[in-house]
Amino acid sequence: MSLHTYSALAALVALAPASAGAGGTRSFHLGDFDDFDAGEAEGAAIEGSGKVTVGLVPARGGVKGAASVFSCAADPKDRSAAWLGTADGSGVQRIKLVTPSKAGAAEPAASKLAELPGAVVSALATLPGGDLLAATLPGGTIHRIDAKGKVSEFAKLQVEQIWALVPHEGRLLVGTGPKGELFSLDLQGKDPKVVLDSDEKDILAVLPVGKEVVVGTSPGAKVLQVAAASDGILVHDFAGDEVRALALVDGGLVAAVNDFTDRGLSSVQALTKNLNRTSLVGQPAEGSLDATSGGAPQSSADLFFVALGPKRDLARAAEATWESWLHKDKQYFTALLGDPAAKGSEVLVAASQQGKVYRVRGRRDVATVADLDERQATALCRLGDGAVLATTGDGAGAYRLAVAPAQKARYRTKVLDAKQPSVFGAVYLRGSGLTLRARSGPGAEPDKRWSEWKSVTLKKEGDALAGALGLPTRRFVELEVTLASGGELRDVQLFYAPENLAPLVAGVDVARPEFELADDDEPDSKLTIKWKAEARDDDDLVYEIRVRPEGTSDKEWISLSGAEPVTKKEYKWDLGSVPDGVYEAQVIASDEPSNGIARAARDEVVSAPFVVDHKRPTIDGVKVNGLAITGTASDDGGQIHDVAFSVDGGPFRAASPSDGLFDTGREGFQLTLPEPLAPGRHRVVLRARDSFGNIGSLAVIADK
Length: 704
Prior knowledge:
4% of the residues lie in helices and 52% in strands. The protein is mainly beta.
């Protein structure tokens, strides 16, 4: 089929994932944020408006000797370096990252600075002189580390967990658990004071707002302001389990709130319950360290914003409306990074799912700006040169994220499932500065059985770039789009035709005309043919119904449905002109509407033999003995269904079978006329009915 023909089809086929068209043609369509966000981006931003653009380019650095990186802090003495706090092997490493000048450049590796006791380096901060502070779990120890890696005890608090270290106004603020206390120490680690003693278990986030301080808590998901009163001031109480992070932007305050399916679980509780299996770095709360084991907690995540006004008035946060900027199911947010000095309300959000980092500038401006190779993004910090450092769990890594306009970006769709081995045809990309590769394979996870990546030539056709894939016939397909500087991808549509599966007809049931015992008239002379049918590949089906006398040849089939195809799984056959006899019915299912007449597949099933009977029963051998009447009802075409009688035009009442049941074509019956009955002659009408509802009658006289 030519590209021109496909272009005409593109105007007719509904733009929906795996939409179906005529002749077996179907299409995949990617056109909005959720469609694109299901794929993978490298150096590309997936905009909330539904397009892919060149975004933040990741430069990865490797981290050895740890399962995850949990925390980070910029190195104040080197604008492109940072400190990394690791988990499942507590330690601090240093990494220096720059945007690679060319593809395939060697990946820089972190170097070990210090090993610390415990399982997790939960928080990092730098002192004015350049020394590093590191809090470890379990326990309440804060370690001081100099440039040579010498470790000394900075302070030891009587707490079980430390979640945040934040220098503020010449002192160090420390968020702790499980008593929900915020400590303040001098920069020598002395003079510890509890400046907030909340009713919550854990203080996860600590954020200075000018001279004021707000914190985020768990499990009540509250934002509290530090005040003279030790229990603080409630700023906002969210419907969730934890305020995991807070950030200050030019326009106001942003909060990342997680809501876990298990109401008794939070990311903090998972960590404290089993320190080396923390949900915050993507590991199950209990059991195996393997993150694929399915033990990771299930949650939803929300990002909220409240405007504080030009003077950053925290009192507004308690009375103004918090707007929902972003909601994500089946994941939780792990870190926030704002830039309060920059104009506008932009924040970066790290998420637990697929290593995603989102850029949010408001409720209508959301973009996926990083899609890291590891499964979870765990922490964010800003380097001295303005770039962003993102760390990962479920595979320890660190990425420098920076805008690099001259570098190309790559976007790869999720693996698209055609449900059946398919011929993949034309693809249409709407956008500019695009090149395309494609591959197909037999499994949902690309492996050695998949075809090699194939470059696809694109030509301008209408408002799109069109190309023909020409891939091996397989069930799964994946597209990779490269965006040049300034390029963008707005829409993808791929046409394909699956191998056709024949429909399945499960059985044919022929139901005789229906009637009730109380009916006085013969039923409508229509026989109902019903069947079950399944389209195994979701094709639309039509049916042909045929009948023939039992035992005759295939040439004797007579079509009942005629030229008009049947779409329902039921057909009523009018028996008015059909001779008596034994017949069989055939139902033929076809998927012609979805595949066209040349590619249509069929299935057919023949019913069990059934009887067509128009003959009415007869009544003979009637004997009247006072009020008792006996006789015989006979039917040549079937069985006697019932015998009834009516006295002097009254309602019909049931007679009894002489042998206890009506089950053959000749049945004796008996009845007794009801009392009271007036003396004299009475006209009794006897009525016999067969299994087709045919009625025969006879009138007799009874004397009393």
